[in-house]
Structure formats: structure tokens, C-alpha cells
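Catalogue entry: protein

Sequence with per-residue C-alpha cells
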Amino acid sequence: MPVFNNEEIKENLRSAIKESIKDYLNSDMERSSITTYKSVLSLLVGDCYSEVTDSVCHESSIILSEVTEKFSGRGKSWVKINNNNNLWENVVDVLRSNIASKEDCLDYLDKFEELGFAYLRYYRTNKFNSIFEIRVFGCLKSSNVKVNFTHKDALSLEFLEGTPISVGLELSDKNKMSSKKTLVVEDHASLEFPFQNISDII
């Protein structure tokens, strides 16, 4: 016998079956054996299950299409989650619990808390969840830090209105190199002529 551990569903089924048996016993229909009743009930359960499954699959297909459409196209990959959003804790939990990239995750958690929002990149959607990526190695590099949201929650997310680089949240590799070169030049200049004014010499 298969194991079914959801007590709430079992109790609901038990109540529904009891009511069905009562209706059957109180009806004017010619009563047949319990075996016949169980056979009819089994057929009805099979038919109802097929109808509901088809309906759920259809609804799931629609919402999957909506999620895919929302995050398709240029400028529709990055989302933001404010710290007053119920989904904020999902992001925090994932960053705190990641062991493989612990230091990077904690750095990004500090950054998100300072900003007051987190930014994530849409990864993919399956029939169960919509998956987003926290790029803790920089927005240009993929990471293994993923957050799962329901499709309904995914549809409610706000776009970042650009990439982390274009909105000024992160620097591109090119800009990082430029910053490093500027620092090196300034260091050399300060070594060659450490005094700013003539008055500093006198």
C-alpha cells in the first residue's frame, strides 16, 4: 500500500467519502454491494483526477508562458528585491547558507543590506519554480548561488531597469583596470614629487 503522509488531505478525503456513502445509503437507488460502490468510486476518482490534471497543466502552461515572456528580451534579465519585500528573506537565507562561496556571499549580503535591495538575474523556469541567480563573483560571471521563487512571485518582481554595470552598481572589468592604472600613476607621482606646494619645501 502506498504511503500517503499528508494528514490534512487524508482527513478531507475521509470526510468526502463518508458524505458520499451517507448520500448513497439515504438515496432511493437500489443498493448494491460495497464492492460495486468501491468500483464506481474508483472510476469516478480516475475521471475527476484526469479532468483536474488537464486543467492544472493548462493553467501551469499559461503561467510558464507568462514568466518566459516577462523575462525575454533585452533589458529584462535583472530584477531587484527591496528589503521590505517578503521575498527578501529568501535571498538572505540563500546567501547565508551557501558554504561553497561563503565569503563572496557574505560580501554581497553586506552590499545588499547597505543598498536596501538585492539584485538578481533571471536564470530559467521549470514547471515547479522560477530560478534566479545571485552573481556573487560579479555580474558578468555566472555563479552557483540560485534562488527559487514561485511563478506567481516571479511575475511580481520589479526590473532593475538595466544591468548592475549600466545603473552604476558594479564596475566593468575595463573600468576596474582603468581605476587600477589611475591609482598606480598617482602613486608614482607622489613618490617622484611628494610636495604639493613650494611652501611645503620651505
